[in-house]
TrEMBL record:
InterPro entries: C2_dom, C2_domain_sf. Keywords: Calcium, Metal-binding. Gene3D superfamilies: C2 domain. Residues 1-79 form the C2 domain. This is C2 domain-containing protein. It comes from Rehmannia glutinosa (Chinese foxglove). It comes from the Eukaryota. PANTHER family: 16 KDA PHLOEM PROTEIN 2 (PTHR46502:SF2), C2 DOMAIN-CONTAINING (PTHR46502). It holds the Pfam family C2.
Length: 122
């Protein structure tokens, strides 16, 4: 199994590296930065198995609510359920950090959401 993840926060999408040779317990330990504004409530993570000659297989997905990280500014790595077709497939551990940044000039304030530190799929 050569898993990778696609993270989506509203319209922004980021792709992790492929965790080759890590089997069913890969660790990415990567950091992704998203710019978020009002109305963003969740981060979606889709996990895939990289295939060479056929289409990559969707392993499952996790939806992470962002209200706790907005309120606390940081959420330590914790497990979130991974599901596929409404069936439990396992867990993924994700840590999140929120940093509010004030923009300069005429633009409205923007907030940045960083995360995915010490992440792994259990």
């Amino acid at each position: 199994m050569d898993p990778y993840a696609i993270l989506t926060c509203r319209t922004q999408e980021k792709k992790s590296s492929v965790a080759s040779g890590d089997g069913s317990c890969p660790e990415w330990n990567e950091t992704f930065l998203f710019t978020v504004s009002g109305g963003v409530t969740e981060l979606k993570i889709k996990l895939f198995d990289k295939d060479t000659f056929t289409e990559d297989d969707l392993v499952g997905e996790a939806t992470i609510p962002l209200e706790p990280v907005f309120a606390e500014e940081s959420v330590p790595p914790m497990s979130y359920n991974v599901v596929k077709d409404e069936q439990y497939c396992g867990e993924i551990r994700v840590g999140l950090k929120f940093t509010q940044q004030r923009s300069r000039g005429f633009c409205a304030d923007e907030e940045n959401l960083g995360g995915w530190r010490q992440s792994s799929m259990d």
